[in-house]
Amino acid sequence: MSDLLSIRGLGLKIDGKEILRGVDMELASGEIKGVMGPNGAGKSTLLRLLAGELQPTTGELTLCGQDMSERPEREFSRDGISYISQRPGPFRDLTVEENLRGAAQRGSLFSRKSVRGKVDRLAKLIDMERKTDVVVSELSYGEMRTLDVAMALASEPLLLLADEPTAGVSGGVAGDIVDLFKDLCESNRNTPFHLDGLIFVEHDKGTVFNLADRVGFLHDGRLVVEGTPESIRQHGVVAQYLSEHEFD
Amino acid sequence: MFTGSKRVLLATFAALVPITLIGVFPLFMGRFQVVLLTEIIIWGVFALSFDLIYGYTGMLSFGQSIFFGVGAYVLTYGMTWELGLLLSLVMVLLSGALLGLIIGAVAVKVRGAKFFLVTLVGAILFHLVALDNRWLTGGDDGLLVPLQFGGVVDNFYLIYGVGLFAALVTLVIVRSPVGLVFRMIKGDKKRAELLGYWTDGYRILSFAISGALAGLAGGLYGYTTGFVSADFFHWSYSADAVIWTVLGGSGTVAGPFIGAALLTFIKESLSSTWGVIYPVFVGLLLIGLVIGFPGGIVGLVKRVASWTVSGKEGSTDE
Ligand SMILES: Nc1ncnc2c1ncn2[C@@H]1O[C@H](COP(=O)(O)OP(=O)(O)OP(=O)(O)O)[C@@H](O)[C@H]1O
Ligand SMILES: [Mg+2]
Question: Chain B contact for A132, CB < 8 A?
Fold first, then answer.
């Protein structure tokens, strides 16, 4: 099966500081990839590059065989990449419904019926049908994060990038988000909001090893090791990191 | 959902009452009051044009006086060339929109606080150019606007109709999918871009619509006073639009009209000796508003209304 995403020698330098260096990564169709690493390793930066929010200084990035470097940010979303940033992103002054609609209407601005249908399905998916009229600033943190997920799904992406989507979210809701990701990735291609691939950053190793098919470990801007959860546990740097974060 | 449709009903009713009252106003009031109300409606349309770009799309532009002046002159020339009022007004709208596209395309490239400065400098520049080119604008002495009909009451109903039209069109736009994108851009431009929107395109569009409305206000004002001059380009018109909108409530269609009405009324009521304190009064009011009531008058009313509504429903719902 061909790769959904492939990056080669990806690097980013800001003010002479190398934040990412020579990262190679492949994501097969249907794959869920976890990204781990200590604070400041460059995990968020990697995702922002993949989302088009930042432009790499070196290397190349291809999605479904299509070269994505030098493309403006908005085209990443149009080409099937959705991104959930580390900080909650819903528009705080808008209601839940307006946020969902804003995310859902992009490709079909004036077909109100289909947009409304999609908004209803998304609200149902995240179990917020009764909160559609609530303004986002009145939501709990967990609800905002859940709304983030729904908004990212609204464009019916092939690939979802999620930066610590469950950090700071209470156990039950975090579990719901993880289950939703799993369901959407394992779902049949014709299921609404089916995902072809998922890359997520996570500190909680339980979540990473439970959800991911493969895990990459970033350290100091380098992808130190990448492999199945079982195999990377054995790796020296990873083993040390895991033992230091035993009680997270 | 239920509370949503109820709110729409309430808002419609709350809007229909003043609209009707204003409509019958000339039957009971004198000439002076009718003229004042006519001006208030024009200023409301003008403030609304600013509200679209600021209250809905989040751009603090000081360039509204440019469109105001251009609109006034396009109307004047339209009437001078005997195109008739309707066609002249259409030309005013089109030229305002076109100019909005051009100015918008330049302005959206400017980031942050500089945006405000660039639009202000642009406004001052247009004023100077208008003052200098007497052959076109008549400079300080201005030009007379040939009128189609002159009666105060006739003119009132003209402005009333056009004002209503402008408010309705704006309402439709801000409630449309495009209006939602405007509000998303105001909230977080980067995020809107990330969701796939060409935000600069939408901001330019917002400029164009706003330019058409501001031009319309300028044209109507010129038509009402029967006289236009380079002073129509003065940047203080931009400042007025800002203050009216913020006082009345930005990000609402009613707010700019309420703000314009209140301040125009206060300004008129002050005797000439007290007139000098008007700018000081407005300055203090603005500071008080920004600190105390960022939502303006409409925001205040909404808050009070939601207290009473939620108070009543709290017992039955959830
Ligand atoms: N725009 C920027 N300019 C300069 N340095 C930056 C910029 N963005 C990130 N960095 C630096 O790059 C490094 C990697 O940051 P990044 O946010 O990607 O780390 P992270 O792995 O996501 O960390 P965390 O686990 O805390 O979220 C950090 O040292 C950070 O200070
Ligand atoms: Mg991070």
Answer: yes
